[in-house]
Amino acid sequence: MYELAWWRDLLVTIWAAIAIVQTCLTALLILVIIYFVLKMKGRVGVLLDAVQGMLGTAREAAGTAQETLVAAKGTTVFLSDNAAKPVIAVASFVAGTRRAVSAFIRLMRKESKSDES
Predict the structure, then answer these.
(1) Which of 19, 28, 42, 56 is 20 to 30 A from 74, alpha carbon to alpha carbon?
(2) CA 93 to CA 43: how far, in whole Å?
(3) How far apart are alpha carbons 94 and 96 in whole angstroms?
(4) Is 0.70 topped by the overall pTM?
(5) Over the stretch 25-75, which tens digit does the pLDDT of each residue have?
(6) Nearest alpha carbon to residue 26 among 18, 14, 38
(7) How far from the centroid of its chain's Cα atoms is residue 19's Cα?
(8) What confidence tens digit (pLDDT) does each residue in 69-106 have?
(9) CA 116 → CA 97, 104, 107, 113, distances in Å?
(10) In whole angstroms, what is the distance from residue 59 CA to residue 62 CA?
(11) How far, in whole angstroms, is CA 97 from its chain's centroid?
């Protein structure tokens, strides 16, 4: 039949063919990876431009929010100085006057009761 050397040569040939196919597939895979990396490099630039545009819009929105906050603070201070403080002062005066009149009336009642006794 076949000698041992023949089987050895057949296996070496098969292994060599497998190694060649494996090397070709690896080279093809490397080329595909390089292709996708180069393709994505161009898209990353577009994506980066879009992100920078969004950041610019976000900065503008933050500036507008800051301006609105300053305006709201000014309005709050104005209302506090010109509306709330005078109302609080009048309410405090009225409450104090009511307490004083109430205390005076109680004092007068106590004196009138002690005079009757």
Answers:
(1) 56
(2) 72
(3) 5
(4) no
(5) 999 999 999 999 888 887 887 888 888 888 888 889 889 989 999 888 888
(6) 18
(7) 54
(8) 988 888 888 887 888 788 888 889 999 999 988 888 88
(9) 29, 18, 14, 5
(10) 5
(11) 52
